[in-house]
Specification:
This protein has about 120 residues and is α+β, with helices and mostly antiparallel strands. The chain has one domain. The protein contains three helices and three strands. The protein has a three-stranded mixed beta sheet. Strand 2 and strand 3 form a beta hairpin. Helix 1 packs antiparallel against helix 2, helix 1 crosses helix 3 and helix 2 runs antiparallel to helix 3. About 15% of the residues are buried.
């Protein structure tokens, strides 16, 4: 599991949660079940599946800032280099399980929509 940066975490989270919100809205609202619209709904949820999977498989640390510092001694040819990385640890690792659940829910919905496209006549 690798750590992701703050901007990646925000973008992936936005795409995954908007996909889940789209799924919730489509379950509340009366949605036409034609073949073409089922395929279109399935296509729009695939990025949410990918982003939820990335969030679920990332580590519990969010990399916030990396600072590279180079110091030179003017009297000699000595050079010092220092790299400081600031991380934000997630308080509870249950978020990985939540993102796996979001990914599984979206995969099941996309599979149902694909079966709807294949099995339904126009």
């Amino acid at each position: 599991m690798s750590d992701i940066s703050l901007i990646e975490w925000i973008v992936y989270g936005f795409v995954a949660y908007v996909s889940l919100l789209m799924l919730i809205i489509s379950s509340i609202k009366e949605v036409p079940t034609t073949r073409s619209l089922a395929g279109l709904r399935a296509i729009f949820l695939v990025p949410g599946i990918i982003c939820a999977g990335i969030l679920a498989s990332s580590g519990v640390n969010i990399v916030f800032q990396t600072v590279n510092t180079t110091t030179r001694d003017l009297n000699s040819s000595t050079v010092w280099s220092q790299v400081v990385t600031t991380t934000i640890p997630l308080q509870n690792p249950v978020w990985q399980s939540v993102h796996y659940m979001i990914m599984i829910i979206l995969v099941i919905y996309v599979l149902v929509q694909i079966f709807n496209v294949v099995g339904k006549s126009e």
